[in-house]
């Protein structure tokens, strides 16, 4: 039978050794303490048994401050109740829970990404709950700023796609170019009504020279714009209808009563100035 020392010598020669438990523990602790996330472990009674270095810096607490105590040490009662309910759910279900939340803290309003999971010992017995909490406030603020920029760009594009041109006192021209889908049709009506109110217009000229195709949605939008304009005290003059668009309006049996139709934008402006 081979000697155990021979096995150990061969293992050493091959570069394979059993890990030193103490070294492993020290390295795991170094890893956890180097994490930018707040890491903690609680027992089954929701009492802290471990917090990492980041948790301590963030809460201005030491492990000695937190050990054997609950969340009431660091947060108001209403938050304690919610945290406890979440952690009880995790322990009872045995399923990790991941979510994002916004919390008002002494440092201000902050956003966190949180993962909570049940923790078991080597025998499979539940010993508590662990948590990894990452501050994502900066990322959220960047996302909100990006959303504001996108909204501003959309508003600018909307203004450019449906310009309101004051022609004379009380007269607006709205040149429509390109494709008018349902979303843009709604924008046309909104911009038109806002422009009528801002400029105290009595006449709005919708010039559709740039529109070669018109479907039922666009036709309905024009009729809606005319009716809405009348409600705020203005009339609509429709100019620049191409033969293709005229045929579409006839085919769709669109009711243009109450809308003056003229061949060109120039004739529309002349009409508006005469009235």
Overview of this structure, please?
It is a single chain. With 275 residues, the chain is an alpha/beta fold. The chain has helices at residues 4-14, 21-34, 53-59, 63-66, 77-93, 137-161, 182-199, 216-231, 243-251, 265-274, and strands spanning 38-42, 48-51, 97-105, 108-120, 126-135, 165-168, 171-177, 203-210, 235-239, 260-262. It has a five-stranded antiparallel beta sheet, with helices on both faces. Helix 7 runs parallel beside helix 8 (216-231). The longest helix has 25 residues, at 137-161. The mean pLDDT is 84.
Question: What attributes characterize this protein structure?
Answer:
alpha/beta, 275 residues, rod-shaped, single chain
Number of helices: 10
**Whole-number mean pLDDT:** 84
**Biggest beta-sheet profile:** 5 strands, antiparallel
Using only C-alpha atoms, the radius of gyration works out to: 35 Å
User: How many β-strand runs?
Assistant: 10
Q: Level of helix content?
A: 40-55%
Please report the distance between the alpha carbons of the first and last residues: 117 Å
Order of helices and strands: HHEEHHHEEEHEEHEHEHEH
**Unreliable residue runs:** none
Task: Determine the structural class based on helices, strands and strand pairing.
Answer: alpha/beta
* Strand arrangement across the biggest beta sheet: 2-1-5-4-3
* Beta content: 15-25%
Shape: rod-shaped
